[in-house]
């Protein structure tokens, strides 16, 4: 009964916290709400008219939705780069940032699931993914494995921070014997969600662009570059607009993680380019289409030739110690690296896999306004959820929110 009373008090205090704030906070939440409403309107059109209102066709059946899904799986997995040093290795420098990182993971996973729902056409078909009712096809289907690992990782990233914050809300220390086993499991689970997603693409024999042994490791490298880069940007915003002060050394340690991951990601990219273009076969046509165009079709050229220079520039800037320790340069590098990997891992990975088709036909894909509207709405949803989680967590960690006995 006491725990229920504390939980009710926490919910009440959290609602009070998230509904009060500065004028900038209210403007931010209002903007996000407006974008979500626009996204809902676009989604209502898709529900009414079907996926025909998107740029996807029977030739290119995965587009902007699955591109964002693939990228956000990596953002969610990146939380492990803070969880392991904090909960397992007892590195106190990461302790300030770990709850923010896990909040970001929860938001990213919610966006992942929302993009899957959008790509399936509507929520009415989700019953197919329910074990025992729908056509779950476990364990043969890689999509089934993906559903399981995503929901499992979401559960871990909700329960572990909730337990810690619930104890702190009562003015008590969290018991390590309770949350450390879950934290250890989340480390392996984070690797699993990205590898399973990579295997989902690698297992499609008719798409040679994805039949690459480096796809799984490169997914992890790009995730551990883009995810912590976003965490650094979020921490910079939090320490500028709230009383929750993040130490410089915390940001510098996360920056080192981003640097190493970005370097590995770039090496793997060079390795893939060598494999595709040094001794090309007819299976290299997708890569040729992506980087140089094919038979006059070149819709993706502006995207990929924006991503590659940004990726190289960010990695070079991060590699030099003096530049990386200059926070203006660091934040700029993290931003362009995040954008570069979003393009590379989105349009640069998903769309070329369908071009040319199995019979050599080239049907190009570009997202429609409806797709873009739904996508922006889902990103706004993720930012909205993260803002609520972060504001509550920061209030508890600063001691502003406490259970009144």
UniProtKB/TrEMBL annotation:
Keyword tags: Cell membrane, Membrane, Transmembrane, Transmembrane helix
Major site of localization recorded for this protein: membrane
TM region positions: 27-46, 66-85, 97-118, 147-166, 178-201, 221-242, 254-274, 300-320, 329-356, 376-401
Subcellular location(s) per record: Cell membrane
InterPro entries: DsrP-like, NrfD-like
Membrane topology: Multi-pass membrane protein
Top-rank taxon: Bacteria
Keyword match Transmembrane: yes
Pfam families tied to this protein: NrfD
Record keyword Coiled coil present: no
Similarity-based family: Belongs to the NrfD family.
Name this protein carries in UniProt: NrfD/PsrC family molybdoenzyme membrane anchor subunit
């Amino acid at each position: 009964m006491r725990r229920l009373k504390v939980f009710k008090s926490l919910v009440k205090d959290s609602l009070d916290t998230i509904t009060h704030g500065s004028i900038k906070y209210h403007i931010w939440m209002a903007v996000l709400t407006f974008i979500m409403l626009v996204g809902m309107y676009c989604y209502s059109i898709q529900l009414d008219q079907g996926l025909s209102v998107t740029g996807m066709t029977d030739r290119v059946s995965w587009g902007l939705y699955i591109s964002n899904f693939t990228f956000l799986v990596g953002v969610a997995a990146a939380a492990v780069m803070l969880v392991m040093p904090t909960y397992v290795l007892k590195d106190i420098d990461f302790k300030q940032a770990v709850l923010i990182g896990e909040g970001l993971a929860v938001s990213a996973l919610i966006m992942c699931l929302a993009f899957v729902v959008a790509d399936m056409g509507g929520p009415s078909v989700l019953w197919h993914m329910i074990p025992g009712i729908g056509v779950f096809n476990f364990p043969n289907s890689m999509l089934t494995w993906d559903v399981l690992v995503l929901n499992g990782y979401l559960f871990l990233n909700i329960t572990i921070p909730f337990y810690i914050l619930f104890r702190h809300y009562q003015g008590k220390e969290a018991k390590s014997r309770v949350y450390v086993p879950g934290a250890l499991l989340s480390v392996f689970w984070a690797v699993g969600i990205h590898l399973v997603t990579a295997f989902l693409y690698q297992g499609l024999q008719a798409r040679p662009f994805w039949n690459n042994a480096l796809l799984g490791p490169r997914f992890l490298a790009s995730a551990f570059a883009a995810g912590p880069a976003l965490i650094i940007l979020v921490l910079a915003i939090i320490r500028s607009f709230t009383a929750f002060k993040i130490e410089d050394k915390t940001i510098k340690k996360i920056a080192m993680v981003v640097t190493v991951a970005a370097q590995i990601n770039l090496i793997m990219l060079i390795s893939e380019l060598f494999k595709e273009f040094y001794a090309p076969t007819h299976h290299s046509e997708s890569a040729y289409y992506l980087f140089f165009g094919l038979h006059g079709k070149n819709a993706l050229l502006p995207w990929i030739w924006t991503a590659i220079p940004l990726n190289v520039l960010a990695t070079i800037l991060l590699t030099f110690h003096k530049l990386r320790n200059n926070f203006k340069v660091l934040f700029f590098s993290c931003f362009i690296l995040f954008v570069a990997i979003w393009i590379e891992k989105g349009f640069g990975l998903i769309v070329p896999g369908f071009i040319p088709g199995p019979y050599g036909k080239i049907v190009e894909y570009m997202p429609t306004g409806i797709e873009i509207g739904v996508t922006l709405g889902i990103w706004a949803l993720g930012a909205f959820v993260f803002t609520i989680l972060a504001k509550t967590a920061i209030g508890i960690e600063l001691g502003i929110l406490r259970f009144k006995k």
